[in-house]
Amino acid sequence: MQTYNEEMRSEPTVRDKRKKGLAEESGSPVLNQGSQRKKQKVSPTSVPKKLKFEVPTAKFDKIFSIDKLGDPDHAREMKSFYDENGIVCIHLGDKINTRQAVREFVTSIFRQMPYRKEFLLNFKLKNKKEIHIDNDEDIDDIVNVLLDSRITSENLRRLKNALPPHATFGAPCTPPSFHLDIENKIRQDEQLYRAITLLLDNERINCDFNRAIFRVPTVTQGEVFLHFDLDPRAIRSDIDSLIQGKVCITACKFICVPGSNTDEFLKGFNEVYAPLYPGRKHGVAKFAIEPGPVKDPWDLFGKQKAFEIPAGSIVLWSPKILHGHPSFGRETPISIGFYLGFGPEVSKEQREALVKSYKEGSIPEFWPSGDRVHFFPKKFTNFPFMLQKTVVDKLTPKAHEALVTTRTTKLGKEVVDMRPWKWKDGNFTPFQFTPLGLYITGQKEWPK
Ligand SMILES: [Fe+2]
């Protein structure tokens, strides 16, 4: 029998791929259009600090349909697919109207920014017309620009200036990012809830309270943060009761290493990789690996696939799967969507926090992983000039006065700091959940 090391080094056969249900798109363009994936040639003695990978695009053998999951055969097939592959894609039918959802991103997330007018969303159209988020009549054109397959460099520059904090990661943590109507509508959707109960084999589940995704094309391409969300050396016994996911309002890609979700893989990984990463604190979320023959002896970076997720779908994955947050480069459309995972029913304390958040429109204190939520990127703490440049310098005088403070560093230096902002002029209306939605979103305890 092959050891895991051998298996991971060998190229999967077509039969293997079929068995996995994840056939690679033949002859598909990789990230650098039209070129073949380049083999990285590195000697063990000269490991580059940062390797760039052209991850091959792949298509799911099957995308399931939310409207057909009432058919027990379709539902069973979906369950087997997920159990085998640790990942599954479900098209959400007509539950998502792309234009309407993107419009909500514009009028909610972007209109809530307490920035001066020149830093609020504005674009220049091909006919030279200037459009600005302050003008209601320009919103349709703004949506068109955001849905363009390739945003112009000028408009990308303007967009980057108007992004909320966490712009570089593509997942803003401002209040509207957690409270969009489209998010709440899908969170409480009965058909999706039924599908997840089947995947998790549990009816007493809650969806997590997570944020929107708004990822702009990056200049660099191919840099991948390949990681487990949970520390693989400290996998919790309840891991199979959790599922992670993201709803893709626009088409996007999900990068993972197919087959890395199995217990056998995990066992082998822990034996071979854990010793290569000493000094990593045990149990901390996000266990990333580094490329190169020394730190990645199974060439897991080379085994990544970028699965295409059609607009209007949800991709769900096991927290055990090794996956990546890619930078696909300048030729990619803007990726718009939101995270949506599910797990066992929350505790009484968590329920109380959720009720409060949904009622007041606040952001959560902690992620489902247990990590603290940072309103600004954590690195701003060490680099206050970045906070100054990307946020503080753009604030309206009123917001500046209300939010900006200072703090003293450990070295006794006074640096800029600021409080998170809330809704503009208290402009928040709580979403009206259905009776079932209150249970699904964890605001009410499931009946015994
Ligand atoms: Fe992740």
What this model shows, in words?
The protein has 448 residues and is α+β, with helices and mostly antiparallel strands. The protein has two domains: 1-30 and 51-113 and 164-375 and 434-448, q2cbj1_9rhob like domain (Jelly Rolls), CATH 2.60.120; 376-419, no CATH class. Helices cover 27% and strands 17% of the residues. A six-stranded mixed β-sheet has the order 1-12-10-14-8-11, with no helix packed on it. A six-stranded mixed β-sheet has the order 2-3-13-9-15-7. It has a two-stranded antiparallel sheet with strand order 4-5. Helix 3 (72-85) links the parallel strand 2 and strand 3 (87-91). It is globular and about 55 Å long. Bound molecules: fe (ii) ion. Fe (ii) ion (FE2) binds at residues 227, 229, 323. Residues 227, 229, 323 line the site of fe (ii) ion.
